[in-house]
Amino acid sequence: MLASELKDTTVAGDRIDQLVAGHRPGHGLARAFYLDPEIYERDLERVFRRHWHCVAHESAIPNANDFEVFRMASEQVIVTRTASGEIHAMLNVCRHRGAEVCTKDKGNARAFVCPYHAWTYGNDGALKAARLMPKDFKREDHGLKKLNVRVVEGLIFISFAAEPLDFSEVERLLRATCGQYGWGSAKIAHRQSYAIDANWKLAVENYVECYHCGPAHPEYSETHALEQPLHLIEELNARMEARTCALGIEVASGNHWQNSTGGKETIHAFRYALYDGVQTGSKDGQALSTLMGRFTDFDGGVTSIHLGGTTFLVCYPDHGMIYRFIPKTAETSEMELIWLVDGKAEEGRDYDLEKLTWLWKVTTDEDKAIIEHTSRGVRSHYFVPGPIAPMEQNELRYINWYLDEISRPA
Ligand code: FES
Ligand code: FE
């Protein structure tokens, strides 16, 4: 590294550390955290490349040799299923001179031939052929860079880290939550991407609190109990837990939280009740699809999981939601929503796609709008973050978690 680069890095590092130190406890993040390219680079280093990300449900690549390319920040990741059914993730970067090896977004292929000089990689990433290279060239040393992969309850997770965060508690909690809802044998009913004109944290922060749900989400508020007094929420939750228990199902109840300071992946899992008589997240509260997993009836509950820095999961007894938050640039991001139903459910017979997707489409259109309203406001030179409300306790925890993550060296 040149001395000038070292100096710049240090100056940027000091500046970011000062911004973190200047954070006012109990308040939102200062505007630099949503605009500054150097903070964005640190986010990528210490959040994006440290944590696990859910990229898809495995039904996105159901057949032998299926693949899909996922674009996240400046990275492209090819996720494949080999002929033997194993799932691999690798960077779409040729080990010769760096060209994109895979030029299609998705498809079915046993091998990827680089369009530049035709180095050929198997769909497990191994370099199979490299034309006209010297005799001592070692193909085995030039496979595509592999990423860590875990598949749990049908969810494909990847990590860029050389030493990935311990995933065991996450796995246990996913089995105790998504596993009860049968996500391992679910299938994708619909996927939708939303371009967000805002830093990725403004999108995530919007999803960790429901202080905004009353004013911003009239449709969602019809079925999801939000701004009730605490004792009423507790009563609703107790009735939900009794119904779940009567079904003979134990979904990890209570509030589970694990930080990543001990080298383990972060997870927050919790349950909450819908209004009495509401079965699922639909327009009229009535069922949307066939029951999933161990559910033989509706329990009127929702299980919510926030995992790592970019993955949110929501389980209803008849469908599931995956939310992916994808950084793009310092001031832009993307969200992908994935709707899951039981693997045997058939569109038209067991579910109506329009009804299934109605609630989270209308809610996400509203969320995109408020995230972008906030982004435009935060760009003001005069923006000063205000106090976090008591109802935003998860937002407060998120902010503290985030500041801790970017303060710890990679
Ligand atoms: Fe891929 Fe040359 S860059 S073969
Ligand atoms: Fe919202």
From TrEMBL:
UniProt cross-references to InterPro entries, sorted A to Z: ARHD_Rieske_2Fe_2S, Rieske_2Fe-2S, Rieske_2Fe-2S_sf, Ring_hydroxy_dOase_asu_C_dom, Rng_hydr_dOase-A
PROSITE patterns on file: RIESKE, RING_HYDROXYL_ALPHA
UniProt GO MF annotations: dioxygenase activity
Keyword check for Ribosomal protein: no
Keyword tags: 2Fe-2S, Dioxygenase, Iron, Iron-sulfur, Metal-binding, NAD, Oxidoreductase
Highest rank taxon of the organism: Bacteria
Necessary cofactors: Fe cation
CDD domains, per database record: RHO_alpha_C_GbcA-like, Rieske_RO_Alpha_N
Bilayer-crossing regions: none
Residue span, Rieske domain: 52-158
Alphabetical list of SUPFAM superfamilies matching this protein: Bet v1-like (SSF55961), ISP domain (SSF50022)
UniProt protein name: Aromatic ring-hydroxylating dioxygenase subunit alpha
Organism of this sequence: Ensifer adhaerens
